[in-house]
Specification:
Largest sheet: 10 strands, antiparallel
CATH superfamily of the largest domain: Catalase core domain
Bound molecules: CIS-heme D hydroxychlorin gamma-spirolactone 17R, 18S
Family: Belongs to the catalase family.
CATH architecture of the largest domain: Beta Barrel
CATH topology of the largest domain: Catalase HpII,  Chain A, domain 1
CATH class of the largest domain: Mainly Beta
Number of strands: 21
Number of domains: 4
Helix content: 25-40%
Radius of gyration: 29 Å
Keywords: Heme, Hydrogen peroxide, Iron, Metal-binding, Oxidoreductase, Peroxidase
Strand content: 15-25%
Cofactor: heme
GO molecular function, one term: metal ion binding
Distance between the termini: 52 Å
Oligomer: single chain
Shape: globular
Structural class: alpha+beta
Protein name: Catalase
Number of helices: 21
Length: 729
């Protein structure tokens, strides 16, 4: 890879201001000219041979005295640090945050009020359960952690892509995580909730009901980090200049809409391309398709805390948007990939307790525990000086009397290391100087291990979520539950879980019972209240009708139609999507008439249909003959169809596609008209015999591309599922 930083990258680095400049101080570039040295700076003459005793042509023993060799090996032996106890698998990027509407009515934090500011951020996305080397596309909650490097200090929103959590009180975190992680006797399964212990815990712990429904929904298998929402989950508070306090929840909503993989595809990708999400994010940023999210706040005045039928401090509950609308006030853009994974993505350390003046906590019992946990875990993961690491250090001055500890970097001058001191050195700030002021909340009560009455209601919002799903999403939840419980060998686990589902919806419980075994419940312990709310179904977030940043495969073999190929390639690129040419080999493939030679990006074995969003096949007699005879090529098309992806074909490829997927509804007339069915878009005639033919075909071709791109922009063709033979609720 080139060591040069591109112009575009430099522009972004400039825009990110302080944090990029700050990091640049520590950034080393591998250069051709610099000579290899030890860590203590002495140049080495070889990196290949351990110092040893040699005589004539005989190799003698290695000498322990070799400091170069020992340094290399011992340094290497200690390269690993403990992985995160949860959220070990992740990827990150730099970006910027701006507010376009000041929230000064509710907070005085400049990061949320100053519309002229650009705050540098680092975002880390993650899965919760898997180890560092696990696959990206597993069914799991995704972490969405944002560090804002503000002028007033670092602010971390350590969120997820699901707005609720399994537990209400932090004390239970070790239990829920132990139950979900691989089982203790054999460390199986990796990065899965489909096992006895997870579902045993869910049954025994009713407050998790709402959350596991989200976990079984498509939210848990996102198409891309760029296409998922983020939620702060916990209830925080905002303080304004008048001293008024509001409760707040934070939300990120992606510009591209909220989209998911289909389950079969997610399963396959886990083996075929375990880094799928990581690469997707990096690729988009590299190509300048910077992902963006709107930043929103839901705000409740302090006086209204008890006005709802749920407790607003309960992290197993959403604040339904029909009751408390989201106010979108800002925008996040990710625009720079990391320079080095370990020192940036791995060493970044988030703490929910890191807030800036104008932002505060609530008594949400999950948040209170988190505020303890994150700082604590960084001590064991990175050590007491973790905040001095380049990726973690604030862009504003840090000045205090915390001192020493392992790996201390800062060299503090002066004779005093305490406050107060005889020089009045380094005094605390006043509120006017920007000092953090705790809100003077009146607190009274008895000491007890208890929760408020509303915390004890565990099913109403699970029903609300279920009721709000589209038909397709309901089917996916049903199938996900059927899959997960099928992986539980202990009948006690799946039989009881089936009963639990009746607390949400009787029909759902009965359908799952039929699939997984276990007695189907005859009646619901509590009726479904029938209420729905907005913005829970992903269909409320379709995103713009665009193919931007989507991967579109073009399947070719020798003898492909060069005109159809070329126009599709150009149109895909013009739409800022990524054309990926797939052929029988990654060596030259020649078009019909020998007019064009193409070197495919990948071959059929190396790259799979799961890795793209849509497939286009240009005609060409020989090319289509070759593809028709090739099992892998046929599988490509069938699999893309099975995963509900748009398929486009022209000329001879139309018959190939029709035969391969044997779709009865597709009819193709000889007039060269465009026919669209189930997201399969075809154009039979592309070779004109006359001028009037050419005009007609040109019209048809335009219509073809529009229709094909329209089908891609829909993300998936859900009719292919609904009209099939799926078990349905
Ligand atoms: Fe975390 N969580 N968590 N969590 N969490 C960690 O901190 C914890 C919870 C979340 O990319 C740990 O640095 C407790 C909710 C993300 O580096 C640890 C409780 C939400 C990340 C920890 C929760 C999250 C973590 C492990 C219950 C969504 C990855 C490594 C009270 C709002 C951050 C680390 C990154 C990581 C504790 C629940 C999100 C152990 C005790 C709810 C995105 O401190």
């Amino acid at each position: 890879m080139s060591n040069l930083v591109s112009k575009a990258q430099k522009a972004v680095m400039g825009a990110q201001g302080d944090k990029s400049n700050d990091l640049a101080k520590e950034t080393k570039q591998v250069t051709k000219d610099a000579r290899l040295t030890t860590d203590y700076g002495v140049k080495q003459t070889t990196a290949d041979d351990w110092l040893r005793v040699v005589s004539e042509d005989k190799i003698g023993p290695a000498l322990l005295e070799d400091p170069f060799a020992r340094e290399r090996i011992m340094r290497f032996d200690h390269e690993r640090i403990p992985e995160r106890v949860v959220h070990a698998r992740g990827t990150g990027a730099f970006g910027t945050f701006r507010v376009f509407e000041s929230a000064e009515d509710v907070t005085f934090a400049p990061v949320l009020t100053d519309t002229s500011r650009e705050t540098p951020v680092f975002v880390r996305f993650s899965t919760v359960l898997g180890s560092r080397g696990s696959a990206d596309t597993v069914r799991d909650v995704r972490g969405f952690a944002v560090k804002f490097y503000t002028q007033e200090g670092n602010w971390d929103i350590v969120g997820n892509n699901i707005p609720v959590f399994f537990i209400q009180d932090a004390i239970k975190f070790p239990d829920v995580i132990h139950a979900a992680k691989p089982e203790p006797q054999n460390e199986v399964p990796q990065a899965q909730t489909a096992h006895n212990n997870f579902w045993d815990f869910q049954f025994n712990h009713t407050e998790a009901t709402h959350m596991f429904m989200w976990g079984m929904s498509d939210r848990a298998i996102p198409r891309s980090y760029r296409m998922m929402q983020g939620f702060g989950v916990n209830t925080f508070t905002l303080l304004n200049a008048k001293g008024e306090r509001h409760f707040v929840k934070f939300t990120w909503t992606p510009e591209l809409g909220v989209h998911s993989l289909v389950w079969d595809e997610a399963l396959k990708l886990a083996g075929q391309d375990p880094d799928f999400h990581r690469k997707d994010l990096g690729e988009a940023i590299e190509n300048g398709a910077y992902p963006k999210w709107k930043f929103g706040i839901q705000v409740i005045p302090e006086a209204d805390e008890h006005k709802f039928d749920f407790d607003i401090l309960d992290a197993t509950k959403i604040w339904p948007e029909d009751l408390i609308p989201i106010r979108y006030i800002g925008e996040l853009e990710l625009n720079r990939n990391v320079d080095e994974f370990f020192t940036q993505t791995e060493q970044i350390a988030f703490c929910t307790s890191h807030v800036v003046p104008g932002i505060g906590f609530s008594n949400d019992p999950l948040l209170q525990g988190r505020n303890f946990s994150y700082f604590d875990t960084q001590l064991s993961r990175l050590g007491v000086n973790f905040q001095e690491l380049p990726i973690n250090r604030p862009v504003c001055p840090v000045m205090n009397f915390n001192r020493d500890g392992a790996m201390r970097h800062t060299i503090s001058r002066g004779t005093v290391n305490y406050w107060p001191n005889r020089f009045d050195a380094n005094p605390p700030a006043t509120a006017q100087e920007g000092g953090y002021i705790e809100y003077a909340e009146k607190v009274a009560g008895i000491k007890a291990r208890a929760r408020s009455a509303k915390f004890k209601e565990h099913f109403a919002q699970a029903q609300l979520f279920w009721n709000s799903m589209s038909k397709v999403e309901k089917n996916h939840i049903l199938n996900a539950l059927a899959f997960e419980l099928d992986h539980c060998e202990d009948p006690v686990v799946y039989e009881r879980m089936v009963q639990r589902l009746a607390d949400i919806d009787l029909g759902l419980a009965q359908s799952v019972a039929e699939m997984v075994g276990g007695e189907a419940p005859k009646e619901a312990p509590r009726p479904n209240h029938g209420r729905k709310t907005i913005n829970l179904t992903q269909t409320d977030f379709p995103g713009p009708l665009t193919i931007k940043s989507r991967r579109i495969a073009i399947l070719i073999a020798d003898g492909f139609d060069p005109v159809a190929y070329q126009s599709a390639y150009a149109a895909i690129s013009a739409g800022m999507a990524i054309p990926m040419v797939i052929g029988p080999r990654r060596a030259k493939v020649v078009s019909a008439g020998n007019v064009k030679t193409v070197t495919p990006h990948h071959h059929f074995e190396g790259f799979r249909s799961t890795m793209v969003d849509a497939v286009f096949i240009p005609g060409g007699v020989d090319s289509i003959r070759a593809l028709s005879m090739n099992g892998r090529a046929q599988h490509w098309v069938r699999e893309a169809f099975g995963h509900l992806k748009a398929i486009g074909a022209t000329g001879e490829a139309v018959d190939f596609v029709n035969k391969t997927i044997a779709l009865p509804a597709v009819t193709v007339s000889d007039a060269g008209e465009v026919h669209e069915s189930y997201g399969v878009v075809t154009l039979k005639h592309v070779q004109p015999d006359s001028f009037s033919d050419a005009v007609e075909i040109a019209k048809g071709a335009k219509g073809f591309m529009e229709n094909f791109f329209h089908a891609i922009a829909q993300h998936r063709n859900w009719d292919r599922e609904l009209d099939g033979l799926h078990t349905q609720v």
